[in-house]
Structure formats: C-alpha cells, structure tokens
Design a protein that fits this description.
This protein is an alpha+beta fold. It is built from four helices and ten strands; from the N terminus they run αβββββααβββββα. It has helices spanning 3-13, 73-80, 97-107, 163-174, and strands at 19-24, 30-38, 42-49, 52-60, 64-69, 111-115, 120-129, 133-139, 145-151, 157-160. It has a ten-stranded antiparallel beta sheet with strand order 5-1-2-3-4-10-6-7-8-9.
C-alpha cells in the first residue's frame, strides 16, 4: 500500500466510527483502531478489543503494511454503546518521536514503549528527552525499577492510558513504589 493511500485512508477515518483493521510489517496479527489523529509519519488511534476501548497507541505509518475498514455488526454495537462520545483525546504533537514523547511527558502518566521487531517491552515514566533517545524509568513484573536510554530508532509503538499501564500505575502509587 502506498504512503499516499495510507494517509488518505487515515484522513477519511479520523474522528469517525470507522474501525480500522491495521496490519504492521513486524506482526502477523492485526489491530483495530479508531483513528483520532495522524501526521505524515504517525497514526494515533484508540485500540478496540472485544467492544472495549483499551488505551491510545501511536505507531509509524512506514510500518503500516495494510489498512482496511472493519465492516460488520460489531460497528453498530459499538455505535450504540457510544464508545467514542465522551472520549478525551490528549493533544499529541505527531511530528517525531521526540515531539510525541515531549507531549506525553506533560501528561505525567505511565506509558509502554515497544520494539516489536526485537520483542522489547518497556513500561514506565519518561525522565529526560534527548535529541535521539529518551532516558526512561521502567518497571518489571516484579516491581523492580531500572533506568536507561531508549533510542528513538528502536521504538515501534507507544501505548498509554490503557488498562494494563493504568492498573500498574494505580498499584505503584497506592503502595508508594514509584521511583
């Protein structure tokens, strides 16, 4: 699929009840997104899974292999449930990974950074934003904190305000376990 076709598809789907089935180069599985914004480099969507919205994701358009509409009864069910009516979408500058991360740092919430190609998964908080990387405080499944740099070139997706990271953040705050 050509980049111009992807951009036009995103343009026509932004802010609608069009549920988009997105296939990425690094994954044989697909994801369902409502497109809330896009740029010439990134798509910004709300992930849908079994009639539930589960957080925001930002992914590179260059990794998008194919995008198509999901067109079945599920869409009517989701419309009746008014899933998108009260959705608060944060303003994210989608110019580059650096500007995206600067926008997310202002939200002061736990995020998930993935390198789907290498299979790396980092969950935590942005500490410092550099020219080509971020300094990140991440937590593992045992609640142990680590810190280190993550180059932008390794990032395939960023997820935030999803059930998984919100549950972790709530637990860590309630038990005074933040770094």
């Amino acid at each position: 699929m050509k980049k111009i076709d992807k951009i036009n598809f995103l343009k026509n789907s932004k802010g609608t009840y069009n549920l988009c089935r997105c296939y990425f180069n690094y994954d044989s599985y697909y994801y369902y997104f409502y497109i809330v914004d896009y740029s010439d480099k990134f798509l910004f969507g709300v992930e849908e899974d079994d009639f539930c919205l589960d957080g925001f994701q930002i992914r590179k358009i260059s990794d998008l292999k194919k995008i198509e509409l999901k067109d079945d009864l599920c869409i009517k069910i989701l419309e009746e449930k008014h899933q998108l009516t009260d959705l608060e979408v944060p303003k994210i500058n989608l110019s580059s990974w650096k500007t995206i991360l600067e926008s997310l740092k202002l939200l002061n919430m736990m995020i998930i950074i993935q390198d789907e190609i290498e299979g790396d998964f980092y969950m935590g908080y942005i500490d410092k934003i550099e020219k080509s990387s971020i300094h990140f405080h991440r937590v593992d499944a045992d609640g142990v904190w680590y810190e280190g740099d993550i180059p932008y070139s390794c990032i395939t997706s960023i997820t935030f305000n999803d059930r998984y990271s919100k549950t972790w953040q709530e637990y860590l705050i309630n038990h005074n376990l933040l770094p």
